[in-house]
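Below is a filled-in request sheet from our internal design queue. Each sheet records the structural input a requester submitted and the sequence that came back. We keep these sheets so that new team members can see what a complete request looks like end to end.

REQUESTER: design group, bay 2
PRIORITY: normal
MODE: inverse folding
CHAIN LENGTH: 379
BACKBONE (tokenized):
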């Protein structure tokens, strides 16, 4: 596993997204602006600053085909940005929210995008050609708390959400005139808009970072209790697995293939999870670590590091143990990693590169070629 590039853009980064050709990155430096940088001769040059929001920008997504950027903010608004004459022009999206917008993602066909919010509501936004504006339909009265993440199924209809009520849910977002019916009769995609297909009560703590596998057959999300959950056969009789790990909780996940997931979070080091030939998921290793630690001495060191991070203990020996443990796992980021983004083409069965951003203000680009050789059977 090699880190291709690491650059510190700001004191802290809230979220980031890449242009279709991966030559530019849009990020929020933990304020109400979106900065767009372009890589040139091993340096990053700031090209644009998008200034329209009044509060922190909490979500960014850059469409791979239409080259549009969607942003959401704690100011309860969303904008779709289009590049016209070398300038990014915003179009306001009326979300009808009374609390902060927290996350956003374009659908696979890019004819819709979903916004999760602190209003216990999910907004499904789409473009009306007749009126030349973006409108939203709301999924209400389903969540009991803030919606922390959203993820589109490859079929462009099903949407998975996680919430601080500890639950993961799957909804139908079928909109007449926007979507086409699934040819498979009786499939969940034929359900009416806002119908709940599935509710998962696996976590007893806040839930974050939901993602679908490339085929859409497996769902993964994380809990604030240092757990990650995998769900197969999403429908009336799902098959669920829970994997507990010893260190700090995760915030986001990414499917590298059907049998491998990268998780990032408060431990500041990406973690690798994989399924064996029988479909059982387990923790494999930290990125940058040669093998997963399983000895009692290692467990003691990991516990000391976690205790230090949570409670701020100042004992020199404990701090040194934490530092050494962190260095042995890679140490690219210095603070919580809050976002992981694929750098492969949309719909690709395998992800060979990805980027991470965190509260340390860094964006790191990772290459998976070395790991493919070591764990080839999982790719």
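RETURNED SEQUENCE:
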């Amino acid at each position: 596993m090699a880190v291709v590039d690491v650059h510190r853009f700001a004191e802290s980064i809230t979220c980031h997204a890449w242009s279709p050709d991966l030559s530019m990155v849009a990020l929020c430096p933990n304020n109400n602006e979106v900065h767009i940088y372009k890589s040139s001769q091993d340096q990053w040059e700031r090209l644009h600053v998008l200034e329209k929001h009044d509060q922190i920008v909490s979500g960014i997504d850059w469409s791979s085909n239409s080259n549009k950027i969607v942003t959401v903010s704690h100011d309860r608004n969303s904008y779709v940005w289009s590049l016209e004459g070398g300038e990014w022009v915003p179009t306001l999206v009326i979300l009808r929210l009374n609390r902060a917008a927290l996350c956003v993602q374009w659908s696979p066909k890019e004819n819709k995008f979903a916004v999760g919010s602190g209003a216990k509501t999910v907004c499904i936004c789409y473009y009306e050609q007749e009126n030349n504006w973006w409108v939203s339909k709301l999924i209400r009265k389903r969540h009991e708390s803030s919606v922390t993440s959203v993820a589109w199924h490859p079929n462009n209809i099903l949407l998975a959400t996680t919430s601080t009520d500890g639950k993961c849910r799957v909804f139908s977002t079928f909109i007449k005139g926007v979507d086409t019916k699934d040819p498979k009769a009786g499939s969940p995609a034929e359900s009416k808009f806002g119908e709940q297909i599935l509710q998962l009560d696996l976590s007893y703590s806040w839930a974050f970072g939901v993602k679908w596998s490339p085929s859409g057959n497996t769902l993964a999300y994380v809990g604030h209790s240092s757990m990650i959950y995998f769900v197969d056969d999403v429908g009336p009789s799902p098959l669920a697995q829970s994997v507990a790990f010893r260190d700090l909780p995760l915030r986001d996940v990414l499917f590298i293939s059907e049998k491998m997931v990268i998780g990032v979070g408060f431990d500041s080091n990406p973690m690798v999870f994989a399924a064996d030939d029988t479909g059982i998921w387990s923790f494999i290793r930290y990125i940058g670590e040669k093998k997963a630690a399983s000895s009692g001495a290692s467990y003691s060191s990991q516990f000391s590091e976690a205790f230090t991070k949570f409670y701020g203990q100042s004992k020199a020996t404990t701090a040194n143990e934490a530092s050494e443990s962190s260095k042995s796992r890679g140490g690219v980021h210095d603070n919580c990693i809050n976002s992981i983004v694929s750098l492969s083409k949309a719909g690709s069965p395998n992800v060979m590169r990805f980027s991470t951003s965190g509260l340390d203000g860094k964006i790191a680009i990772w290459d998976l070629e070395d790991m493919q050789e070591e764990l080839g059977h999982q790719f």
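SHEET NOTES:
- Residues 290-301, 313-328 have pLDDT under 50 and may be disordered.
- The longest helix spans residues 296-311.
FILED BY: M.R.
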